[in-house]
Amino acid sequence: MVSKNISPILSGKNLTKKFGGLVAVNNVSIEVERLGVTSVIGPNGAGKSTLFNLLSGSFSPDSGNVFLNEENISNLSPASRLSRGMARSFQITNLFFDLSVDDNLMLACQRLESSKMLVKLNRFSEQAIARSDELIRDFQLESKRQELAGALSHGEQRRLEIAVTMAMKPELLMLDEPTQGMSHSDTIETSNLISELGQKVTILLIEHDVELVMNLSKKVVVMALGSKIAEGEPESVRRDPLVQTAYFGESLA
Amino acid sequence: MLETLQFVYAPQIINGLSIGVAVILMALGLTIIFGLLDVINMSHGEFYAAGAFLSVTLMSLGISFWATLVIVPILMVPLGILIEKHLIQRVFHHKDRHILTLLLTFGIATVLEDSYKLIWGANTIKPETPIPGASEVLGVMFPNYRIFVMASGALLILAVWIVIYKTPLGAIVRAAAFDKHMSASLGIPVKRVYALTFAFGVALAALSGVLLAPIYSVFPTMGKDFILMAFTVVIVGGLGSIKGAVVAGLILTQLQALSSLYISPVWSDPIVFSVMVLVLMFKPSGLYGGMKNA
Amino acid sequence: MLDSKIKAIRIAEIFIFTCALLLVVIGTMLGDSFFIRLATEALIFGGLALAVDLLLGIVGLLSLGQALYFGFGAYMAAVLLKDYQFGFWSVMLAVLLFSALLGWLTSFIALRSKGVYFALITFGLAQVAAKSVYNTRALGASDGMVGVPIVQIATPFGSLNTGDPATFFVIVFITIAILYFVLKYFLHTPTGRIWNGIRSNESRLPYIGYQTAGPKRAAFVLAAIVAALSGALYPMLRGFVSPELMFFSVSGNAVITVILGGVGTLIGALLGSGILTIFKSIIGTLTVHYHIVIGLIFVIVVIFAPKGIIGYFADRIQKRTSHG
User: Distance of CA B183 to CAs A144, B87, B188, B193, Å?
Assistant: First the structure.
């Protein structure tokens, strides 16, 4: 086995981000191993989203670095990170609402045929069509192809949100509260979907649904007030007194 | 050297200041409307023109210039309220609000401008200078009217600043701008605040028109001519910032006044525009962005 | 939903084509030149509106100064035809190339900003250009340039005389139609989809792998070309050009045209231009103050029917099919 396979796919080293006087992320380091689901949890205001934004390139860190497959990507734009295999979804659904489901996916999938040229005139992108058909099937959006994304139900929108993120077959899929606002049954379905995906790609998850996280993850990272306070397998994290205090001031179990 | 300062630069500086206060008044209205309502009022220049036209008409009916300074802005208030309540509010809650209000106010501007042509004709009207003559200040002769414009304009700007920042009324306006839902739940009549603020903003523009009419003359396209300057001041100062409107207004009008010594006036628009473009390209939030900053 | 919009667009296309056909046939039979020339002018300004719709309705950028490129095309054509005796094809080619260059250069100024700021920059650019042309003696200053010769177009079918109203109408119709179909074609390309994405949710695009600067620039240059080529036809029709062609009212009217016809439909620009031209000539006979009426109509459309005529019909079709 080449050593690449056992090194973390993503690592953030000593990341710090301040907004004015507020230290949102305070010297946090995180390693995401290949395949399976790694989750970041923590109470509101813990800095999870900011950490996510630092890792995905939405913000640049005040200090620290981000490595993807051992390459320092700290200064790369989100688009460049995507071409290197990192894709992210959004907590607040961030679709093209006045475009159809089909158009949303085609827009995401046509990037598959990229060359450096941005002004491309070939009308029919077969690779893109094939991939978008695949995604429609995988995410059960067949009957909604021509619907405007804005007209879908919340659960369908969240599914489409993940589908769009998957378009480029990323190695690392970063999902920001994918089950946010979903009904119970939708949450279970999505959870199964994530579990399945986690067998083929690496998933980094932010979630508020602690039970979901404990069931899915092979590793859990806990943040509070901008710092990492615990990490490890779900069971050990669940029993960690620091984590319990951070959340409720009482036992989670 | 001192003589150059005295005879060449000083007059231009004073000229620039007298124009400057009027520009600032107009820009204040524009920036307040943006700061509170989040509306780009493309028709702002037409209220400036309305002020000038109304003032001229009232004067031809025998009313003194000084009275028009008070009456005209007051006349603008109901018009402003009507427009805000019945037109702007209709597109206010649309998701494309910014573009729609821009287009809407553009449409209003079109209607207003042609109405002026209809009512007053296309010719230029030159009202008489309300304070003729000149006085000597520091050894140089300055037109009395310009001194008046400068002084009264400065007082008005100060008054606006005091009202917005030092009175309960101003606090209400700022609160509504900052968070309208919270303000509404605190009992602030947000809709009324919007309407009155818009009316206040356009009244300032009209007042500016009354003040500048004797200097620049009155003609139907005067609003369109002036609006580029007003927008430039607002953008350079920072959309929504009162301090920004004042500072940027002073800088830009001084720039215009002093550069006219060396460059032909046809270049004044390109220069002003270039400043706006540079600011938009490199620091789009302007000198002081946001109404929360003084 | 989208099907109804496609249907409405198709209907509009057929409608316009039919009107054009009838106009040419009946107009020629009656020996008319006034109405045919008026319709030609409607098409020319429709071309400008197409450029505005590309930017506003497809990419989501409101240009308040597209007349800059229209006027550029008009002046360049006038100068080349009058002073340098260029022929039709070489004029169009020159305008194409130089307007592309102008569009490309100005894009670096305009595209630094978006939304309202973009609108103001384009507004300012056009103002400055218009004032500069107004003050330039070599271009005729405020009087503009007159005496643009009637051009003969060399084709494999013989020489076409643009002085003949019906002939020129057909030529302009074909030119604008070509521009229209070129733009439509682009809509179905990857670049076109990116444009839709920019309009719909620009901030998401980097996360699905796109830099938006390139596509925006491409649209901006294309819009400049379309506006300029339309403008180039103007002196061929009227024999003169003047700085008024660059004034804000021309840019503003183009925006009104687009909103009236149906923003984002492309054909709406042509439809709107036809309707506004008819309006202007009717109201223009009653009063010189037609701007008030048009302004009022515009305000009403913005408030009550922001999707314009085609949008309105698309909604009607939608309602009918969901009940039928």
Answer: 41, 23, 5, 11
Boundary (domain end) residue, out of A126, A148, A168: A168
Count of domains for chain A? 2
Separation between Cα atoms, residue C43 and residue C96, nearest integer Å = 18
CATH topology of domain C2-322: ABC transporter involved in vitamin B12 uptake, BtuC (1.10.3470)
Q: Taking 50 as the threshold, does the pLDDT of residue B229 lie above it? A: yes
Q: Which of C203, C207, C263, C307 to mutate to test the interface with A (most CBs of A within 10 A)?
A: C207
Residue A180 inside a domain? The answer is: yes
Q: Exposure string (b/e) for C61-95, b if CB count within 10 Å is 16 or more?
A: bbbbbbbbbbbbbbbbbbbbbbeeebebeebbebb
Nearest CB to A164; choose among C185, C194, C208: C208
Domain boundary among A147, A168, A189: A168
In this structure, the answer to whether residues A177 and A197 fall within a common structural domain is: yes
Indicate whether A155 belongs to any domain. yes
- Domain boundaries in chain B? 23-123+142-221
- Closest chain A C-alpha to C99 CA, distance in angstroms: 18
Cβ neighbours for C186, distance < 8 A, ≥ 6 positions apart: A121, C192, C195, C222
| Pair of tokens at residue B81 | 């309220």
Cα A219 to Cα C112: distance, rounded to the nearest angstrom:
43
| Cβ contacts of A123 on chain C, cutoff 8 Å | 185, 188-189
Q: What is the mean pLDDT of each run of 10 residues along chain C (324 residues)?
A: 85 94 90 90 97 96 95 96 91 97 95 83 88 86 88 84 89 96 92 93 92 93 98 95 92 93 95 93 82 90 91 88 68
Domain with A158, as residue range(s), is 95-168
Residue tagged 């240059």 (tokens)? C221
- The model's pTM is 0.89
DSSP tag of B187: T
> Which residues of C fall within a CB distance of 8 Å from B235?
117, 120
Residue A210: pLDDT above 90?
A: no
CATH at A206: 3.40.50.300
A191 and A141 part of one domain? no
Chain centre to alpha carbon of residue A188: 18
List, for residues A142-156, the tens digit of each pLDDT value.
999 988 999 999 889
Domain ranges (residues) in chain C: 2-322
A191 and A156 both lie in a single domain = no
B110-155: per-residue pLDDT in tens?
999 999 998 998 888 888 888 888 887 766 778 888 888 888 888 9
* Tokens of residue A206, six digits: 């932010």
Q: Is the pLDDT of residue A28 over 90?
A: yes
For B93, the closest chain C residue by CA position comes to C303
C289–B118 CB contact, under 8 Å:
yes
Q: Are residues A66 and A135 in the same domain?
A: no
